[in-house]
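Format notes (please read before filing issues)

Several people have asked whether sequences and structure tokens are stored in separate files. They are not. Every record keeps both together, in the order shown below: the sequence lines, then the token lines. Line labels are part of the format and must not be stripped during preprocessing.
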Amino acid sequence: PFENMIYLGDGPSDIPCFAALNRKGGKAIGIKVEKEWHKEFEQEMYRRNVTTYKADYTEGSELRIFIEKVIDDLL
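Then the structure lines:
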């Protein structure tokens, strides 16, 4: 089920997946891999209510803590 899905995306080509997951109850997470995104992409992420984080998956990082929280909420 979509509500059990977590999608991590890092660019404009991921916007359709973000939209589908948000619409169907899943969780979309934007991964910021570049120093700056294009303004249009940033606005699209904001408009679609997609949470964004720096690409840091280490223990204790903001992204890792958020992903762990999302997983805990699913259980």
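For reference, the curators noted about this record: The chain has three helices and three strands. The mean pLDDT is 86.
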